[in-house]
Amino acid sequence: MEQKDIWDAETARNYDTPGTGMFAPEVLDPTVDRLARLAGEGAALEFAIGTGRVAVPLAARGVPVTGIELSGPMVEQLRTKADDTTIPVVIGDMATTTAPGEYTLVYLVFNTISNLLEQDQQVACFRNAARHLAPGGRFVVELWVPELRKLPPGRTATVWQSTPGYIGLDTYDVLRQHVVSHHFHFDGTRKAQLFRSPHRYIWPAELDLMAQLAGFELESRHADWAGSPFTAESPSHVSVYRLPGAV
């Protein structure tokens, strides 16, 4: 299934969970705080802007935000929160589509770079970020760390969350660096609702090489948006890459 088919009207309608999950204040507020500091006095471009989970509060902080988004239905959901003057959006993929203007910050949140399923597409995404940035501009990537250490011999899946009414598991194809995330939602019946999304996972060192190929250097890496130290046990990271020069 192609990404544009996954992020359809039904997914867009059900994507937002105000006040909970990735929309919870303890998750969202540190994200917006950090991005606002990194943008400084300049403008920000969000790759895969989706329904505006981050862009809307970031724009409310006074940062001019533009987006690139592949899914028309996701943008329609965004339009219920902000018009195209407040947050302009260009429809297209984040590896090749360009937006007008020059930016001090380009950012990708919540593992979205892994939606590009080939390594050359992910490298192209870094190059696309670089072409939008002013000298000294930053590209921020939030990404999970593959859980291959949890796979015993002969097993291809990990359960990464199990709560009442929900099970999340990933199935791995280690030869292709592909993983499919399976989200099972249960109610009081015998039936479950399933949502699946394919990804290409990226090790932090591989991500750094992609950045280098696009002219970036790693400025910082933390375990979260609040700046916690990144360690061998961290399940995800926020990596900030910077172009040479001064903004």
TrEMBL record:
Keywords of this entry: Methyltransferase, Transferase
Domain Methyltransferase: 45-137
Gene3D superfamilies (alphabetical): Vaccinia Virus protein VP39
Biological process terms in GO annotation: methylation
Domain of life of the source: Bacteria
Any one Pfam family match given in the protein's UniProt record, by short name: Methyltransf_25
GO molecular function, one term: methyltransferase activity
Protein name stated in the entry: Class I SAM-dependent methyltransferase
Lineage, highest ranks first: Bacteria, Bacillati, Actinomycetota, Actinomycetes, Kitasatosporales
